[in-house]
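[User]
Protein folding is very new to me. Any chance you could explain this protein sequence and its structure tokens? I have pasted everything here:
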Amino acid sequence: MNRINIKSRKNESGFTLIEIAIVLVIIGLLLGGVLQGQQLIENSRVKAATNDFNGIAAAVFSYQDRYGRLPGDDPGAITARGASWALAAAPATAGNGVIEAAAATAFTATGEIAPFFSHLRSAGFIAGDPSITTGAQSLPQNSFGGLTTIATDSVLTGGTPAVGLNGLKVCMGTVGGSAAIALDTQLDDGSPDSGRFRSSLSATPNLPPAAAAATAYSEDSSYTVCYRI
């Protein structure tokens, strides 16, 4: 009878402290690897977005050097320059020296926004299908899952005195808070309402840049970010 009881107790014995410690160490290593992997993914997205900002700026300047016009505002692009060039209706404002890109409709690609990207693609300065010459489908996707567009309106006003972000701006929608902080730190002064890089809160995906810039970043929020080139 006693032997049966002893055997039963041995079968019911739990994990030892050493075994539990080993399991906890393994779980810690797995969690650390997952978190490290997520950080590497985030860093790669920020790097890709930085390259896109700088790449589009370089493409605009290269286009000007080659054709003497701004992409999207180039009447010469309407006539066939070769098989790679998509033929689209010329905007009424084409050739006036200004890219008509309203901030309010930046992510629907009205005005000369869609032709802007089509011309750069036709010239081989950025990747994509140049035959898409209208609508949001003409906009490149950014590394955060949102869209990339341009705006020329004065928007994202901030600072003292209050100054809007003027000139040609490359904007990205649906950028997470930590990524927006990293981009602003790398490209500008780290503040959402001053400098060449500014941000506004984006409650919905691809929300147009607001009239007023955000006053502070939160990693829990999403932003539309714009960088003046």
Summary: The radius of gyration is 26 Å.
